[in-house]
Amino acid sequence: MSFQIIEDATLLAIVQNVAQMVSYPNPSDPAGDSDPSVQQMVQAVNMSATELMSLYDWQSLTRTYEIAIEASTPGISEQAFDLPEDFYEWIDQTQWNSTNQWPAIGPISPQMWQNLLVRTVLPTMSFYWQVRDNSLYILAPPTEEQTLTFMYQSLAWVIDQDNPTLYKNRATKNGDTILLDSFLVTLYTRAKWLEMKGLDSAAAMRDFHVNFENRKGQKKGSPVLNMVRSYGFPYLNALYNTPDTGFGS
pTM for this structure? Predict the structure, then answer.
């Protein structure tokens, strides 16, 4: 059995597909084309992908990260740590102190943060955190290094044409690869380009929304929810009543 799976995920492919959909002359070099309409298509690709990034937690943009948490000064009440350079948003409830194997508590509200900050004894069993000034603040960081691990959504939705290790948040070269669903980016780009030209985009926008709802979670998966009583016997559950090691000994 053989397959031929075509992923029109480059800037060149998407612009050319849009041009064909709207009966516009097919550009061979969208990134360097001086035609204002082609440049509008390139801009529409970047606008569409940037907006699409914020509409869903795409598995292609999901990243894991670790921060070594250690007090710069013993006894310090709070300390700021840098978030990933490509950080866009948290994936909630993935923050853990992997050293102590405790969930990290947060984000703490400003009111609760002040409450904890002025107490005589600060919490030390796990990390208490909040975000201020685009930095991650940890309450009462430990004097010995502990690891905070979490998952987040990256804003770097482009792989550079010439350097596959360089991730970007804007497509500027014909061969730049877009990590989002290329079909959705194409449909959304068409709708935005029609709007830019002052043309009727209602049908194009409808096509995008229908496909967005159908395709957004297809590569990610989701749990099957059961609304009736289960007749299985889940007596052993690794999350609740089975130890990590030594079971049965």
Answer: 0.86
pLDDT given for residue 158 in this prediction: 98
Q: Does residue 107 have a cis bond before it (omega within 30 degrees)?
A: yes
| Runs of H (alpha helix) within the chain | 11-21, 36-53, 110-117, 182-196, 202-215
pLDDT surpassing 80 at residue 219: no
Residue pair 137/116 in contact by the 8 Å Cβ criterion:
no
What does each C-alpha distance from 118 to 60, 70, 78 come to in angstroms? Answer: 42, 21, 11
B/e letters for 216-235, b = 16+ CB within 10 Å, e = fewer, are: beeeeeeeeeeeeeeeeeee
With contact defined as beta carbons under 8 Å apart, do 153 and 166 qualify?
no
Radius of gyration of the chain (CA): 24
* Per-residue model confidence as pLDDT tens digits over 67-123: 999 999 988 999 999 999 999 999 999 999 999 899 999 999 999 999 888 876 777
Query: How far is Cα 7 from Cα 232, in angstroms, rounded to an integer?
Result: 42
Of 154, 152, 153, 150, the C-alpha closest to 95 is 150
Alpha-carbon distance of 26 to 2, in angstroms, equals: 31
Query: Which tokens belong to 99?
Result: 């050293």
The DSSP line for 122-177 is ---SS-EEEEETTEEEEES--SS-EEEEEEEEES--EE-SS-TT-EESS--STTPE
